Amino acid sequence: MWRGILVVLLLAISTVAADARPRQINPIPFSHEPCSVLDGRPCTPSYCSPLEPGPCIPEIDYPYGQNLQLTIESAPSASDRAKYQRPDHDLDTIGDLFAELRSCWSPPSDNTRAGMQMSVRFSFNKAGGLIGPPRLTYATAGVPAGIRTSYLNAINSSLNACLPLKFTNGLGGALAGRPIAIRYVDNRDLGK
């Protein structure tokens, strides 16, 4: 009986001592901290315990997200110009794909409008070709049909000029059939 009381007393003391330790929660979600085999906890992206108070926040940094979305500007800023350079090798990463798609864009020269935005959605096959024509998902409201048609034709010709894209086997297999959404923004100073 004394053993039982001693065990309960030790459990109560350890619980109070565990709650007395200050628990540090990283206020910046998805930040990565180095971990070591000498740490007193598992080194996994997401770790929770029913004995710990507080939220269980996974610390996984997704640079692109599950859906492949890209914004292409007609006149990129000076800090973004490197992202618009065509890769000199087969496309092996999503970043390479985005750089290739950015470098392909040539906006229309006539029937333009400052601030025009248009979004399309499409998919590639494993060989780097389009599965179907790009589908228009958004166009700036209040724009005449002629200007919308001009931008859609420019988008289709720019994509067709780049095809077929040269994917590595790994990227081609990973991208095949996945929808890609591109938002084209005409931020040029058209002076009209």
Brief account:
With about 190 residues, the protein is of the alpha+beta class. The protein has 4 helices and 4 strands. The chain has a 4-stranded mixed beta sheet with strand order 1-4-2-3, with helices on one face.
In angstroms, what separates the terminal alpha carbons?
Answer: 92 Å
Q: Helix- and strand-based class?
A: alpha+beta
Number of strands: 4
Give Rg in angstroms.
26 Å
Strand order of the largest sheet: 1-4-2-3
Q: Into which percent range does the helicity of residues fall?
A: 25-40%
Reported for the largest beta sheet, the result is: 4 strands, mixed
Mean pLDDT: 80
Kindly estimate the percentage of residues that lie in beta strands according to DSSP.
Answer: 5-15%
Number of helices: 4
Shape: elongated
Order of helices and strands: HEHEEHHE
Low-pLDDT stretches: 27-32
